[in-house]
Write a structure and sequence with these properties.
The complex is a heterodimer of chains A (408) and B (287).
Chain A (H helix, E strand, L loop, with lengths): L1 H22 L8 H23 L15 H13 L2 H11 L6 H25 L20 H27 L3 H31 L17 H27 L6 H35 L3 H4 L2 H27 L2 H25 L13 H24 L8 H4 L4
Helix pairs in contact in A: 2-13, 3-5, 3-12, 3-13, 4-5, 4-7, 4-8, 5-6, 5-13, 6-7, 7-8, 8-9, 8-12, 9-11, 9-12, 11-12
Chain B lengths: L4 H17 L1 H13 L2 E6 L8 H9 L24 E7 L2 E7 L8 H5 L5 E3 L5 E3 L9 H5 L6 E2 L8 E2 L5 H5 L5 H5 L5 E5 H14 L19 E4 L20 H38 L1
Parallel strand pairs in B: 1-9
Antiparallel strand pairs in B: 1-8, 2-3, 4-5, 6-7
The chains are: A mainly alpha (408), B alpha+beta (287).
Chain lengths: 408, 287
Amino acid sequence: MTSSAFPLKKEKRSVWRFLLSELKPRGKWITPFNVISIPVMLVGAAIIIIRFINGIGAVSNVNQDIPWGVWKGFNVITGVAFAGGAYILTFVVYVLKVEKFHSIVRVTVLNGFLAYVFYAGALVLDLGKPWNIFNPIIGNNFGANSVLFLVAWHFLLYIIAQAIEFSPAVAEWLNARRAHKILSGLTLGAVIFGITLSTLHQSGLGALFLMAKEKIHPLWYSEFIPLLFLMSSVFAGLSMVIFEGSISERVFADQITSENKKQRKDIILILSRVCAFSMFVYLFMQILVFAHGHRWEYINTPMGYWFLIEIFGFVVLPMLLFLLSFKRANIMLAKVAAVFTILGIILNRLNVSIIAFRWDAAVHYVPSWMEIVVAVSIIFVEIWIFRWVINRLPVLRESPSWAKNKHA
Amino acid sequence: MSINRRNFFKVLGVTGATIALGQEAQAKSASEEVTEFKAILYDSTRCVGCQTCEFSCAEAHNLPAPEDFPEVGVIRKTSEKRRTVVNAYDTSAGEVYVKRQCMHCNHPACGAACLTQAMQKTKEGPVIWREDKCMGCRYCMISCPFDVPKFEYNSPNPKITKCNMCFERQQEGKLPACVENCPGEALVFGTRRELIAEARRRIVENPDAYYPHIYGENEAGGTSFLYLSPVPFEEIGFSTTIQNASYPALTKGFLYSVPAVFVLVPSVLLGIHKATKSNLDKNNQHD
């Protein structure tokens, strides 16, 4: 009896010691990324404190006409589009069962999960009364006819779904075999639930602006904003997968096996084909909306030129680059195209939510330096946590051998 | 009355039943629901720009008294410290004063936007804001076609502020402060139905004095603040792009697609999953 209880206790204690040791930082401290990100995050934290003492107006330039600034327009609305890679890849891997993409699905889900957690965090900073954030979740305050109600609930549920999708990696890290088996069994359900939620809230973010009919420049407003947002989240997410992958490949080179490295080239080329195709569909939808709305009269105006820059410079151009990269099997071209696509998505989301929103207002909104520092800090904190996880959990690394055969 | 799914189905049900029973009953039930809202009629031909409404509003809501006055060429705006303003416009009929505040829409965009029901269309008509529900997301400000809700950006515990048609005074049986104190009887309080009839009567009896339109009768699906003007409304600073359908109707299509997506997408995904699975199994057998 005593002999069997003793090792159990010992193992338990070692789990805590293990967790403590994992919390310690690893590797060099003085890296270019750390040197830049640490001061920015410290300043960002100070600004957040000022924001909670003196109100949003003390640090932010949002005003009565344009109430949503970069924290919502960039961190939430743009960030969520980039997190779209997770629902596309889980669809490909777990529903279509294209095993080729298995090596990158975990890192993409992790990215998506962190993105949602931190962008929900950005939302809290922007709320005037964040202590009431539980009102739409508990109690009898359901504004069920609000698009934002739908989006908020979907964020919450999708964070849970992604946590379940990622949980087998945590189980492998903690060497919890039984939990691993249970959690792996939940993956398919979480994936199907997650994809459904994603289609609805990616489009829902666009639907948020449906009631602002006269406030958004007609070149950006249409009743099809939800569909355009959903379609563009496909190539936004996949471009982010390509972009993030090309950085991870270098930074975490020691974790990727040589077999995976070869596979990665193949993966990028297939993804660029999917990007090119979805961008073509998106472009076609944009043209339909444009023609359907009789919008020629707006083209020869400053906002019209701005619209043309967005469409030709950041949709047509990267689409052609993706096609070319696939034709020539050129990885570099695909990466360039991904960067252009990412810039284009930022441009599009900021156009709808900020730049073309009350484009006719007397006072235009330009974000303050403090807003930008906070927006960037949020991304830096996310990258720090991402790095911490990658260095410890089997995300890019191969799973331990005991977990492998159950995965097929 | 706010639009939600239940009400929509209720209306559907009522409409369906009444079509079966005869058209008379349908017209009665629909109009009763809408017009029993309380409303305020503002007649700009009677307004002299004395700002009594501004002062009494500030007093009723413990806000600072206005220090500027209506001036042609200056657009004074409502703000978090000022819920109503009077502006002067130089028009084809001479100088005209216009009072602006929340329009109290029949189907308010702010109320449909609010995810906590903090913005609420009361059954009495006023659109009110409830502090204990609000989380300060400012989606009401994004959605309001009249740019009415204002936010206290410089407070750590901010409020959304806007005219609430003195809802608390109405509960006590009193008139809204601006209506009670208006010396020129430019403001009249009553049910929306009565006031629309009264506005029509004024236009018919004195066609030269009025532009033949009641602003707010149909704008944004109808509002509880109704306006009469001697000149076309674009001359006195009103937006002509406001649609006549209600604003929450714009999100209906999207919201009604949600249940369909929730049923269809998972079943399609499961179907694909099963299909690819059996394919893989077959392939394995062939191997």
